[in-house]
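Example record used in the benchmark description.
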Amino acid sequence: VINNGVSKEFMDDTLNIFKEFHAMPAEEKIRESSRDPNGSCRLYTSREINNKDIVQFWRDTLRHFCPPSGEFMDDSPLLLAHHYPPCPEPSLTLGAPKHRDPDLATVLLQEKDINALQVFKDGEWIVVEPIPYAFVVNISLMLQIISNGRFIGAEHRVVTNSGIARTTVAYFIRPTNEQIIEPAKLWLSSGARPIYSSITFEEFVRNFMSKGPDIEQELLL
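Model output (C-alpha coordinates):
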Protein backbone atom coordinates (compact mmCIF):
# COMPACT_ATOMS: atom_id res chain seq x y z
CA VAL A 1 0.00 0.00 0.00
CA ILE A 2 1.55 3.29 -1.12
CA ASN A 3 0.29 6.83 -0.51
CA ASN A 4 -0.89 5.51 2.86
CA GLY A 5 -0.83 8.82 4.73
CA VAL A 6 2.03 7.82 7.06
CA SER A 7 5.01 10.14 6.76
CA LYS A 8 8.38 8.86 5.55
CA GLU A 9 9.98 10.38 8.64
CA PHE A 10 7.70 8.41 10.94
CA MET A 11 8.42 5.16 9.08
CA ASP A 12 12.17 5.79 9.22
CA ASP A 13 12.04 6.69 12.91
CA THR A 14 10.03 3.55 13.70
CA LEU A 15 12.49 1.22 11.98
CA ASN A 16 15.49 3.06 13.47
CA ILE A 17 14.13 2.77 17.02
CA PHE A 18 13.83 -0.99 16.71
CA LYS A 19 17.21 -1.26 14.98
CA GLU A 20 18.76 0.57 17.93
CA PHE A 21 16.97 -1.71 20.36
CA HIS A 22 18.13 -4.92 18.68
CA ALA A 23 21.69 -3.55 18.46
CA MET A 24 21.92 -3.24 22.25
CA PRO A 25 23.68 -5.90 24.34
CA ALA A 26 21.42 -8.77 25.38
CA GLU A 27 21.37 -7.69 29.03
CA GLU A 28 20.13 -4.22 28.11
CA LYS A 29 17.46 -5.57 25.78
CA ILE A 30 16.15 -7.86 28.50
CA ARG A 31 16.15 -5.04 31.03
CA GLU A 32 14.34 -2.60 28.74
CA SER A 33 11.69 -5.11 27.63
CA SER A 34 11.07 -6.06 31.28
CA ARG A 35 10.11 -2.51 32.26
CA ASP A 36 6.60 -2.86 30.87
CA PRO A 37 4.35 -2.75 33.99
CA ASN A 38 1.60 -4.72 32.23
CA GLY A 39 3.91 -7.55 31.23
CA SER A 40 2.74 -7.31 27.62
CA CYS A 41 6.21 -6.69 26.22
CA ARG A 42 8.32 -9.79 25.54
CA LEU A 43 11.68 -10.43 23.91
CA TYR A 44 12.39 -13.86 22.46
CA THR A 45 14.61 -15.60 19.96
CA SER A 46 13.53 -17.98 17.18
CA ARG A 47 10.22 -18.93 18.74
CA GLU A 48 8.33 -21.17 16.35
CA ILE A 49 5.54 -23.75 16.55
CA ASN A 50 4.72 -26.92 14.67
CA ASN A 51 7.82 -26.77 12.52
CA LYS A 52 7.89 -29.72 10.17
CA ASP A 53 10.99 -28.54 8.32
CA ILE A 54 14.42 -29.67 9.46
CA VAL A 55 15.79 -26.17 9.58
CA GLN A 56 17.03 -23.67 12.15
CA PHE A 57 15.31 -20.33 12.66
CA TRP A 58 17.31 -17.12 12.67
CA ARG A 59 15.40 -14.26 14.25
CA ASP A 60 14.97 -12.11 17.35
CA THR A 61 11.56 -10.65 18.15
CA LEU A 62 10.21 -7.92 20.41
CA ARG A 63 6.49 -8.48 21.05
CA HIS A 64 4.05 -5.92 22.44
CA PHE A 65 0.31 -6.35 22.90
CA CYS A 66 -1.75 -3.17 22.52
CA PRO A 67 -4.73 -3.43 24.91
CA PRO A 68 -8.18 -2.09 23.97
CA SER A 69 -8.40 1.65 24.54
CA GLY A 70 -10.80 4.53 23.88
CA GLU A 71 -12.75 4.11 20.67
CA PHE A 72 -10.88 0.87 19.91
CA MET A 73 -12.45 -1.24 22.66
CA ASP A 74 -13.20 -4.10 20.25
CA ASP A 75 -9.60 -4.42 19.10
CA SER A 76 -6.54 -5.97 20.72
CA PRO A 77 -3.75 -5.55 18.16
CA LEU A 78 -0.27 -6.99 18.42
CA LEU A 79 3.02 -5.38 17.40
CA LEU A 80 6.09 -7.48 16.53
CA ALA A 81 9.49 -6.02 15.74
CA HIS A 82 11.54 -8.75 14.04
CA HIS A 83 15.31 -8.59 13.63
CA TYR A 84 17.11 -10.99 11.28
CA PRO A 85 20.91 -10.83 11.76
CA PRO A 86 23.27 -11.81 8.93
CA CYS A 87 23.45 -15.60 8.79
CA PRO A 88 26.64 -17.50 7.88
CA GLU A 89 24.59 -20.42 6.45
CA PRO A 90 21.41 -19.04 4.82
CA SER A 91 20.67 -22.37 3.12
CA LEU A 92 20.29 -24.02 6.54
CA THR A 93 18.06 -21.41 8.15
CA LEU A 94 14.83 -19.47 7.77
CA GLY A 95 13.71 -16.24 9.34
CA ALA A 96 10.18 -17.68 9.49
CA PRO A 97 8.76 -20.95 8.12
CA LYS A 98 5.85 -21.32 5.73
CA HIS A 99 2.74 -20.20 7.61
CA ARG A 100 -0.40 -18.08 7.66
CA ASP A 101 -0.96 -15.53 10.40
CA PRO A 102 -3.78 -16.32 12.89
CA ASP A 103 -5.24 -12.82 12.76
CA LEU A 104 -7.56 -10.71 10.61
CA ALA A 105 -4.80 -9.04 8.61
CA THR A 106 -1.14 -8.10 9.01
CA VAL A 107 0.34 -4.72 8.10
CA LEU A 108 4.10 -5.00 7.55
CA LEU A 109 6.74 -2.29 7.33
CA GLN A 110 9.97 -3.71 5.92
CA GLU A 111 13.33 -2.26 5.03
CA LYS A 112 13.92 -1.30 1.44
CA ASP A 113 16.48 -3.07 -0.76
CA ILE A 114 16.44 -6.34 1.24
CA ASN A 115 14.53 -9.20 -0.40
CA ALA A 116 13.46 -11.69 2.27
CA LEU A 117 9.68 -12.00 2.37
CA GLN A 118 8.21 -14.63 0.03
CA VAL A 119 4.62 -15.73 -0.67
CA PHE A 120 3.59 -19.19 -1.88
CA LYS A 121 1.52 -19.02 -5.06
CA ASP A 122 0.84 -21.56 -7.81
CA GLY A 123 3.31 -24.02 -6.32
CA GLU A 124 6.30 -21.70 -6.06
CA TRP A 125 7.80 -19.07 -3.82
CA ILE A 126 7.55 -15.50 -5.09
CA VAL A 127 9.70 -12.70 -3.66
CA VAL A 128 7.81 -9.69 -2.32
CA GLU A 129 10.23 -6.95 -3.34
CA PRO A 130 10.16 -4.06 -0.85
CA ILE A 131 8.71 -0.80 -2.16
CA PRO A 132 10.14 2.20 -0.28
CA TYR A 133 7.68 3.60 2.27
CA ALA A 134 4.94 1.12 1.40
CA PHE A 135 3.07 -1.29 3.66
CA VAL A 136 2.61 -4.95 2.80
CA VAL A 137 -0.86 -6.16 3.83
CA ASN A 138 -1.33 -9.90 4.34
CA ILE A 139 -4.75 -11.51 4.46
CA SER A 140 -4.69 -13.80 7.49
CA LEU A 141 -6.46 -17.01 8.47
CA MET A 142 -9.18 -15.28 10.49
CA LEU A 143 -10.34 -13.25 7.48
CA GLN A 144 -10.52 -16.50 5.52
CA ILE A 145 -12.97 -17.83 8.11
CA ILE A 146 -15.02 -14.62 8.34
CA SER A 147 -15.31 -14.43 4.54
CA ASN A 148 -16.38 -18.11 4.47
CA GLY A 149 -13.41 -18.96 2.27
CA ARG A 150 -13.87 -16.06 -0.18
CA PHE A 151 -10.49 -14.63 0.81
CA ILE A 152 -7.61 -17.06 1.36
CA GLY A 153 -4.96 -16.47 3.99
CA ALA A 154 -1.57 -15.73 2.45
CA GLU A 155 1.03 -18.45 2.98
CA HIS A 156 4.41 -16.82 3.39
CA ARG A 157 7.90 -17.30 4.77
CA VAL A 158 11.07 -15.28 5.40
CA VAL A 159 14.52 -16.26 4.11
CA THR A 160 17.86 -15.13 5.51
CA ASN A 161 21.03 -13.78 3.95
CA SER A 162 24.70 -13.70 4.88
CA GLY A 163 25.44 -10.07 4.13
CA ILE A 164 23.10 -7.69 5.91
CA ALA A 165 20.73 -7.52 8.87
CA ARG A 166 17.03 -6.88 8.31
CA THR A 167 14.46 -5.31 10.62
CA THR A 168 10.68 -5.32 10.13
CA VAL A 169 7.69 -4.07 12.10
CA ALA A 170 4.46 -6.06 11.84
CA TYR A 171 1.08 -4.85 13.12
CA PHE A 172 -1.48 -7.64 13.56
CA ILE A 173 -5.14 -6.61 13.48
CA ARG A 174 -6.94 -8.74 16.08
CA PRO A 175 -10.19 -8.70 18.07
CA THR A 176 -10.47 -9.15 21.81
CA ASN A 177 -10.35 -12.67 23.24
CA GLU A 178 -14.08 -13.09 23.85
CA GLN A 179 -15.20 -12.19 20.34
CA ILE A 180 -16.64 -14.96 18.17
CA ILE A 181 -14.87 -15.87 14.93
CA GLU A 182 -17.28 -17.29 12.36
CA PRO A 183 -18.47 -16.72 8.77
CA ALA A 184 -20.09 -13.27 8.56
CA LYS A 185 -23.77 -13.01 7.61
CA LEU A 186 -22.73 -10.83 4.67
CA TRP A 187 -21.14 -13.88 3.01
CA LEU A 188 -24.15 -16.08 3.77
CA SER A 189 -26.86 -13.70 2.53
CA SER A 190 -27.21 -15.45 -0.83
CA GLY A 191 -28.07 -18.76 0.80
CA ALA A 192 -24.53 -20.11 0.99
CA ARG A 193 -23.93 -22.43 3.92
CA PRO A 194 -21.12 -21.71 6.39
CA ILE A 195 -18.08 -23.90 5.83
CA TYR A 196 -16.42 -23.04 9.16
CA SER A 197 -17.68 -23.52 12.72
CA SER A 198 -17.72 -20.76 15.35
CA ILE A 199 -14.93 -20.27 17.87
CA THR A 200 -13.82 -17.53 20.27
CA PHE A 201 -10.67 -15.69 19.31
CA GLU A 202 -8.98 -16.81 22.54
CA GLU A 203 -9.65 -20.47 21.74
CA PHE A 204 -8.71 -19.93 18.12
CA VAL A 205 -5.27 -18.56 19.05
CA ARG A 206 -4.71 -21.24 21.69
CA ASN A 207 -5.49 -24.00 19.19
CA PHE A 208 -3.34 -22.33 16.54
CA MET A 209 -0.38 -22.22 18.91
CA SER A 210 -0.72 -25.93 19.66
CA LYS A 211 -1.84 -27.25 16.27
CA GLY A 212 -0.67 -24.67 13.74
CA PRO A 213 -2.35 -24.75 10.33
CA ASP A 214 -4.21 -27.96 11.21
CA ILE A 215 -6.77 -25.81 13.02
CA GLU A 216 -8.30 -24.85 9.66
CA GLN A 217 -9.26 -28.47 8.96
CA GLU A 218 -10.75 -28.84 12.43
CA LEU A 219 -13.00 -25.81 11.91
CA LEU A 220 -14.38 -27.06 8.60
CA LEU A 221 -18.00 -28.18 8.81
